[in-house]
Design brief:
Layout lengths: L1 H18 L14 H13 L2 H11 L4 H13 L1 E5 H10 L5 E3 L9 E4 L9 H4 L10 E2 L1 H6 L3 E5 L11
Parallel strand pairs: 3-5
Antiparallel strand pairs: 1-5, 2-3, 2-4
Helix pairs in contact: 1-2, 2-3, 3-4
């Protein structure tokens, strides 16, 4: 757990160099706040709600109650798959696009399913041309190429998830 906390702190510093959220916190809304997403990622993967609660109470006190309720729901659906299990599960669920919370190349990224109908074109999601670390869309096969294990939100009905 100590190494995980050190990794979170290092990630915060690295992402701050890219985004400048510590110097300019008002530039980032709640949903797109890199600092919040990093702390939330750590708390989800380590089942450590107190860290996230402390962060929320310091930075987003007006959102803390609702967000902590959502966190409680989200953690129930989080699963750590090996590559084979993930590949099979994603194929069974017909997942076409995933969205990472932090950098999709980071082994600690948590992925949500982006729910698309059969008529939806996936190309706009996968052809993003930016250098953002957070909330990136990826094809499941591409994500699985670079890892042996993956964190997935296993909700398949889309309830409680934001449609993009």
């Amino acid at each position: 757990m100590k190494n995980e906390k050190i990794n979170m702190d290092a990630r915060i510093l690295q992402y701050n160099l890219h985004y400048g959220f510590m110097e300019n916190p008002m530039m980032f809304n709640f949903e797109y706040n890199p600092h919040r997403l990093i702390v939330r990622n750590y708390a989800l993967r380590n089942n450590h709600i107190e860290v996230y609660k402390g962060y929320l109470l310091n930075f987003f006190p007006d959102r803390a109650t609702k967000e902590l309720e959502q966190f409680g729901v989200d953690i129930l659906h989080l699963k750590y798959f090996n590559k084979g299990e993930a590949s099979k599960w994603l194929m069974t669920q017909d997942v076409k696009v995933l969205q990472s919370d932090i950098n999709a190349d980071d082994q600690d990224a948590v992925f949500n399913i982006v729910y698309l109908s059969d008529q939806d074109d996936i190309n706009p999601y996968l052809n993003e041309d930016n250098d953002d670390f957070i909330l990136r869309h990826s094809c499941p096969n591409q994500v699985l190429k670079s890892r042996e294990k993956i964190w997935l939100d296993t909700r398949v009905d889309g309830i409680g998830l934001q449609f993009l």
